[in-house]
Automatic annotation (TrEMBL):
InterPro entries, per the entry: 7TM_GPCR_serpentine_rcpt_Srw, GPCR_Rhodpsn_7TM
GO cellular component: membrane
Protein name: G-protein coupled receptors family 1 profile domain-containing protein
Stored Pfam families: 7TM_GPCR_Srw
Keyword Transmembrane: yes
């Protein structure tokens, strides 16, 4: 009898999780549509003037790849392969291989995006503290090199796990009798994703490193957000006296924009860090509410990531006058 409330709550969570798939799909489409022009604007020569903008270019590229993978997987799952259509072979080689590549790219660029967000806030904090001096960290090349390094490190980490997977033939698929367009006695080979070796060992090591990475990200973001907030307040009076009104306002808007982006990153990264911490150090019993939440955690976390990625275009447009001017230039409008 004591388990009945838990079972009802688990069923309720399962029902919500099914809707989150759809929400994630919709947000991913919106984010994909918004991030394409966002990236084009960031790539404009008038925007490529500092490491802040070059890091945001890296973030936009990472977000686009993650959002594209989410949209591709959901489209295939809802309407094509994975839709439980008896007339479609859901286990074709190229489809399973595309999902494997997609999973690899998603983990690589999602992780890189979070860390680029950390370094975006960190770089801006250092630049603010060294006001009046030109640092190498403020040059655009720093952001480009940082993006390459983080994507490279993230790729090595993901390759450690995904290099062991292969797509092997498992059986034969035959279309249902009601299916039309197939010749008599038609069949296709079916494939399955398998791991060569002890998957548990590789997966455990991978999750430990990934969990520590996510936990560090979720810890760094609020710390950087607090430091940025106080640094903005501290430098406001000094900048107002030493800089022109236009330069001061643009600098202040940029700092506030990065602060807002950092807060959004805190919201999207904290659940991931908590989930990984629970998986690494928690004792999860079967059929428990906590196990259900952790099991569906990746869905909620992915939805938060997509929402965060979709917000970057809006945040930049509302808080950066240079961004708005570049938009007008791209549209052929007067400044």
């Amino acid at each position: 009898m004591n388990n009945e409330p838990n079972e009802k709550l688990i069923e309720f969570i399962n029902g919500i999780a099914e809707n989150v798939f759809l929400v994630q799909f919709v947000i991913s489409i919106i984010g994909l549509i918004m991030n394409i022009p966002h990236l084009l604007i960031l790539l404009h020569s008038s925007m490529r003037t500092s490491s802040t903008n070059s890091i945001m270019i890296g973030i936009a590229i990472c977000d686009l790849i993650v959002l594209s993978e989410n949209v591709y997987e959901r489209v295939q799952g809802y309407w094509f392969y994975g839709s439980r259509n008896p007339c479609i072979n859901d286990f074709k080689f190229w489809y399973l291989y595309s999902l494997l590549i997609g999973d690899f790219l998603l983990t690589v660029f999602e992780r890189a995006s979070f860390w680029l967000g950390v370094f975006l806030a960190f770089a801006r904090l250092i630049i603010m503290k060294a006001a009046g001096t030109t640092l190498k960290i403020s040059k655009p090349i720093f952001g480009y090199l940082l993006t390459l390094v983080l994507v490279g490190l993230s790729s090595v980490h993901s390759a450690y796990l995904y290099h062991g997977f292969s797509i092997t033939q498992q059986g034969t698929w035959k279309p249902d009798r009601t299916c039309t367009g197939y010749p008599a006695n038609y069949s296709e080979p079916t494939f399955v994703r398998r791991f060569a070796g002890d998957e548990t060992v590789f997966s455990t090591r991978y999750k430990i490193i990934d969990g520590v990475s996510r936990i560090l990200v979720s810890v760094f973001y609020p710390i950087l957000a607090i430091l940025l907030f106080f640094e903005i307040r501290k430098s406001a009076k000094f900048a107002a006296k030493t800089l022109s009104k236009t330069s001061f306002e643009e600098r202040h808007r940029t700092c506030r924009m990065i602060l807002v982006m950092t807060i959004f990153y805190v919201i999207s990264s904290a659940p991931a860090g908590i989930s990984d911490y629970v998986q690494l150090f928690g004792n999860l019993s079967t059929k428990s509410i906590l196990l259900t939440l952790v099991g569906y955690g990746s869905i909620f976390i992915s939805a938060l990531f997509c929402l965060n990625a979709s917000s970057h275009c809006i945040i930049n447009f509302t808080m950066s006058s240079k961004y708005r001017q570049t938009v007008k230039m791209c549209l052929g409008m007067k400044k």
